[in-house]
């Protein structure tokens, strides 16, 4: 089951999709400049179910035991609803870190290609100078 949460973080409207399965949590988010309407929320939920949540890494989500009486659990549920969800934030952070690692690899690969290109150019110029074709 996918849970979709819509909240305003002070600057943007945020659509947050979460799915918990087999003790793991996956989460995706989308930022909106204006308050999203029903079609946008449904479209986001459909996208999250079909492809969005499958593309993000799972984060371990341990089960929380039910402790205390009815009123205490009610109070805790109300407090949890008012927060942004620590477990989903952890899942989003894992997704950001994965993207960061990917960008680092791409950047280092591009830098290595640039170094090799410069080296080939230097060798070519050196050979041309040696041949007297400056």
TrEMBL record:
InterPro entries, per the entry: UCP021328 (IPR016787)
Start and end residues of each stretch annotated as Disordered: 77-134
UniProt feature, compositional bias: Basic residues: 117-134
Protein name: Uncharacterized protein
Organism of this sequence: Aminomonas paucivorans DSM 12260
């Amino acid at each position: 089951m996918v849970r979709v949460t819509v909240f305003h973080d002070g600057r943007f409207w945020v659509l947050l999709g979460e799915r918990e399965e087999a003790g793991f949590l996956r989460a995706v988010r989308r930022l909106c400049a204006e308050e999203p309407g029903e079609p946008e929320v449904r479209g986001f939920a459909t996208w999250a179910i079909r492809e969005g949540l499958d593309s993000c890494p799972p984060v371990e989500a341990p089960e929380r035991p039910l402790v205390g009486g009815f009123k205490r659990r009610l109070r805790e549920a109300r407090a949890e609803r008012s927060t942004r969800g620590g477990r989903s934030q952890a899942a989003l952070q894992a997704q950001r870190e994965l993207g960061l690692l990917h960008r680092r690899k791409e950047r280092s690969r591009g830098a290595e290609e640039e170094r090799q290109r410069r080296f080939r150019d230097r060798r070519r110029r050196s050979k041309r100078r040696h041949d007297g074709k400056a």
